[in-house]
Write a structure and sequence with these properties.
The chain has helices at residues 36-39, 48-58, 71-83, 95-113, 133-138, 142-145, 163-169, 193-206, 257-260, 276-289, 292-313, 336-345, 368-385, and strands at residues 15-19, 22-25, 30-33, 88-92, 120-124, 155-158, 174-179, 182-183, 189-190, 209-213, 237-240, 251-255, 317-322, 325-330, 348-349, 351-353, 357-360. By secondary structure, it is of the alpha/beta class. It folds into 2 domains: 15-47 and 292-385, Aspartate Aminotransferase, domain 1 (Alpha-Beta Complex), CATH 3.90.1150.10; 50-289, Type I PLP-dependent aspartate aminotransferase-like (Major domain) (Aspartate Aminotransferase, domain 2). The two termini are 33 Å apart. Bound molecules: pyridoxal-5'-phosphate.
Length: 386
């Protein structure tokens, strides 16, 4: 790894080129990409529509700072607002930063509206919200916090999908709850519909901000633009990143306008956030994926893929998730890491998640033939593992 800091365990694969749902390594081997860079390249690699926006915008204007008006940032904010719940938008550069912004929003909301009496945040066991100090504190996984204790103590974790525990966990000081509607890193585990409805109701009654972390579920991955849209409720704030830039680093936090206004000039900022290049890309990504025909095709592929996976699995695991955010929870006697190593040998990329799960996240615009090719390779990989 030379001088690269040793913070990742890496597979011994060197990818040098990508085209749609295919990746090529330095030895000329071709892989089918069922990982999408962990839910990032939803529109595939080297997508000409995105490359074209990048080169045009790069040749016009990349960055000016947030000291001046930026029409492309305003248009991208309008689009996110229109496609979700009419909030205003803060742009940043990653999922952790988007969640950090949401946590800061909840703090200033509690400080200003309740004179500092509300400041505690509830998050879920097995959640993942990022690696900054606040977001690793919000993350409900000990392995992420290990070595960094003491973490921030205003955040409490509770079991996911248990409404009674949620009710019992609320205190007068609780200002926000943050959750993923489908836990990604935790093993592709969807929230129950009734759970989300109850939480929404309680948050409204108690003036607790409901924050959905849609960093992984967002931008069409689940077959709707945002994962929460499966549930028929709206959050008070939502965070985005990953697929928003199809690989270009951009994140966003959007909040209902009456809440967003608690963040006033000087309270939050980031140099690169919402620059011309990032926003031009995000605007294009959002406009392609939000087309009804595009989302319909994601759902069609989902039904097809789930059916095929079920046949392949033949009882060796269960399928969880929505749209093309699918997880296969392998039976305990089949090791997910072994499966992934065999998949690599068979030239298909998938990524692991918690709970002995492999994530099946193909690009959303994959065609059926490539999907079929990928399914065959998954079948072979399972046979090689069991
Ligand atoms: C749900 C969720 N939130 C936040 C993050 C952190 O995003 P980033 O790695 O861009 O900081 C991730 C990354 O996996 C995620 O899945």
């Amino acid at each position: 790894m030379g001088n690269v800091m040793n913070t990742y365990n890496r597979y011994d694969i060197t990818l040098v080129k990508g085209e749609g749902a295919y990746l090529y390594d330095d030895l000329g081997n071709r892989y089918i990409d069922f990982a999408s860079g962990i839910a990032v390249t939803n529109l595939g690699h080297s997508n000409p529509l995105i490359s074209d926006v990048i080169s045009k915008q790069a040749n016009t204007l990349i960055h000016t700072s947030n000291l001046y008006r930026n029409p492309i940032q305003e248009e991208t904010a309008d689009l996110i607002s229109k496609l979700s719940f009419g909030g205003s938008v803060f742009f940043c550069n990653s999922g952790a930063e988007a969640n950090e912004a949401a946590l800061k929003l909840s703090r200033i909301y509690g400080n200003k509206k309740y004179a500092g009496k509300k400041f505690k945040v509830i998050t879920m066991n097995n959640s993942f919200h990022g690696r900054t100090f606040a977001t690793l504190s919000a993350t409900g996984q000990e392995k992420v916090k290990k070595g960094f204790e003491p973490t921030l103590n205003f955040i409490k974790h509770i079991p996911y999908n248990d409404i009674n525990i949620f009710k019992d966990s609320i205190e007068d000081e609780t200002v926000a709850v943050m959750l993923e509607v489908i836990q990604g890193e935790g093993g592709v585990v969807p929230a129950d519909e009734s759970y989300i409805h109850e939480i929404r109701k309680i948050c409204t009654e108690r003036d607790i901000l409901l924050i959905f972390d849609e960093v992984q579920t967002g931008i069409g991955r689940t077959g709707k633009m945002f994962g929460y849209q499966h549930y028929g409720v709206e959050p008070d704030a939502m965070t985005l990143a990953k697929a928003l830039g199809n690989g270009f680093p951009i994140g966003a936090m959007t909040a209902k306008k009456d809440i967003a206004e608690y963040l006033s000039p000087g309270t939050h900022a980031t140099t690169f956030g919402g620059n011309y290049l990032g926003c031009a890309i995000a605007k294009k990504v959002l406009s392609i994926i939000s087309e009804k025909s595009f989302l319909d095709s994601v759902n069609e592929k989902s039904v097809y893929l789930v059916e095929k996976l079920r046949n392949i699995l033949n009882g060796y695991g269960i399928i969880r998730g929505k749209g093309l955010m699918l997880g296969v929870r392998l039976n305990d006697n089949i090791n997910a890491s072994d499966f992934i190593k065999n998949a690599h040998k068979n030239r298909i990329l998938t990524v692991p998640a918690g709970d002995n799960t492999i994530r099946i996240y193909p690009p959303l615009n994959i065609d059926f033939d490539t999907l079929d090719e990928g399914i065959k390779l998954l079948k072979k990989s399972l046979e090689d593992t069991i």
